[in-house]
Amino acid sequence: MDLNFIQAAVLGVVEGLTEFLPVSSTGHLTIAEKLLGLKIDAPAVTAYTALIQVPAILATFLYFGRKIIRLLTAWVRGLTHAEARTEHDYTLAWAVIVGSVPVGIVGFLGKSLIEGALRSLWVVAFALILWSGVMWLAERRHDQLESSGRIRGEGDITVKDGLVLGIAQCISLIPGVSRSGTTISAGLFQGLSRVVATELSFFMAIPALTAAGLYETLKSRHDLAGLGVGPIVVGMVVSFVVAYASIAWLLRFVATNSLRSFVTYRVVLGAAVVVALAAGWISAT
């Protein structure tokens, strides 16, 4: 399969822009690949989709570098020093670790289904619409808690919160649902502030997406080789730059805005895909 520079750059933009927004990067990549004339279930396309997630995760490392090092240091110290276990960074680190386990297990066990039957635009369209309802309910729950002064900050995060977000993250393996959409929504249901829920979502993305990207790269390296080094590099660079900008923008956005605008966007996009599929303008796979 050939991948030209324009296609690679477009997919890099889509990945970087949507990986951390609650709109589903996999769903948007599937739609973009279809519109670009690529076969969405081809091994090389699936591998490239996973590969360009890696630079997006590197952007997370760069943006939150100091905090990640702080949490990692607290976790290592806590393993050997009892007093270090009383620090909240130790608890927060465990919340991220525990929350990263479920999606790894479910992703491994359901890999064939995720890369097979679920790689359909029908699935993407309905997932975009249906999960929007959950996001709306999460925002409603957040508003209720906020009005009663029961919103929790970073210092209130527990390991249980990490587990709840981690279980919710498993649902995002369905294309169109959105990894950040599930984790942020779960955080809001748990009573976390939008900014804290969003940051925790970013941290939990690191193990899952890094593992998935590296695994797919190694497994499908021969398929990727056929795409050409140039387009791959372009796509990865574009993904990194756009993802970094998206992280910075989203954190500023959720500090003063709800997720309801994303809900509207998801419903409109999902409905548009349903219409296009029903009219026969595009095929599902």
Question: What can you see in these coordinates?
Answer:
The protein contains 14 helices and no strands. The protein is an all-alpha fold and about 280 residues long. It has one domain. The longest helix is centred in the C-terminal third of the chain and has 28 residues, at about 230-255. The radius of gyration is 19 Å and the shape is globular. The model has no long low-confidence stretch (mean pLDDT about 90).
Label the overall shape: globular
Strand content: under 5%
Largest sheet: none
Cα gyration radius (Å): 19 Å
End-to-end separation in angstroms reads: 16 Å
**DSSP helix fraction:** over 70%
Instruction: Give the low-confidence spans.
Output: none
Number of helices: 14
Q: How many structural domains are formed by the residues?
A: 1
Written as H for each helix and E for each strand, in order along the chain, the element string is HHHHHHHHHHHHHH
**Topology, number of strands:** 0
Mean pLDDT: 90
Structural class: mainly alpha
Short account of what is shown:
The protein has 285 residues and is an all-alpha fold. It contains 14 helices and no strands.
For this entry, give a set of tags.
285 residues; mainly alpha; 14 helices; 76% helix; 0% strand
Write the layout of secondary structure elements.
Elements: H1 5-18, H2 25-35, H3 43-51, H4 53-63, H5 65-80, H6 88-109, H7 111-115, H8 121-147, H9 159-171, H10 179-189, H11 194-219, H12 221-225, H13 229-256, H14 260-278
Helix pairs in contact: 1-2, 1-13, 3-11, 4-11, 4-13, 5-6, 6-9, 6-11, 8-10, 8-14, 9-10, 10-11, 11-13
